[in-house]
DNA sequence: AGATTGAGTGTAGCTTCATA
DNA sequence: TATGAAGCTACACTCAATCT
């Protein structure tokens, strides 16, 4: 059974935290406190797990008040001339570490600056790494927060690491793994989250879970292909030129693996092209009935495309994993992951920034982006807009003439 | 000592949305 | 459908601690 003990100085946030616990059916005690100076739950060496998202780069912690706090086992990170701790990040980090029991684990969000900061902060970091309990570091790109655009890093401590992983840190850089929710907000899709997690399974030797995930994606690809049948057939029924579409569909329904995904993409292209022909034909003769038929066609097209995309999507997920870890074992992957040991950290000023170790990823090609196709669409849109533009210019000019001033 | 940086700030001007 | 308030975005600019 888990008991939650929370600390927060903001009243509204306390209410939110309590609601969050209640909604998830959890029991917890959230106390109003300023964590820098107080430990009302007396958590020192008591927590099996620590989870936190502390404020970043705070510069108002009174150094005198915290300098003898037992929760700073690695010392003060540095004091500015105003008598404040120059940056609060390592106060938070030290506190989280000190709350852990002998087997405890911690995971928290942290400002990207902290993992490579110099001076006093580097000293604290060195001592922290020397414990051998820094487990995993993950870089997250900007726009994952709803209200701020800052990038961040996830830090994980583990005091019960197996002996062979002691003094090793798994560096993961997923700054180019994301899904766009809106123009300003990004997140991970459930599959992206699983894929990141599966790297950690390999690190922990839970290779079967990795294998099962790949197998799941493969089954799902076939399942989604099956689901595609009725929607694709519905479109073919109404389409303008059935020839090539029908032939490709015949191949599609009997194919497997890579070919299944390729044919799903080919079908998508053919359907898009056919729909464009359909739309062009209606423009010229826009009777109400034909307009209506076009709208039906558009709905059918969208349904078919959406479903076909799922086929290539799940196939792509399986491929993403097997390309990077072909033997279903952890290995260093350029730009994504590297298992680093203490000596390498030392050579790099004890930096814990994943990007520094994993290198730069080879540019990934968006599987859904087709340059020729996109160029064609943009070109035809431009032509329409140009036509409209010259039509409007002519009307404006005519209107001026009519004013006869 | 100078350059860089930032869970910075403020505001004009545009878009969106509810209302009459 | 016209109107105005609120919301949002892009831009210009701050300033001092930290970095080199």
From TrEMBL:
Keywords: Methyltransferase, Transferase. GO terms for biological process: methylation. GO terms for molecular function: DNA binding; N-methyltransferase activity. The keyword Cell membrane does not apply. Residues 2-206 form the DNA methylase adenine-specific domain. It comes from the Bacteria. This is TypeI restriction-modification system, methylase subunit. It comes from Candidatus Gottesmanbacteria bacterium GW2011_GWC2_39_8.
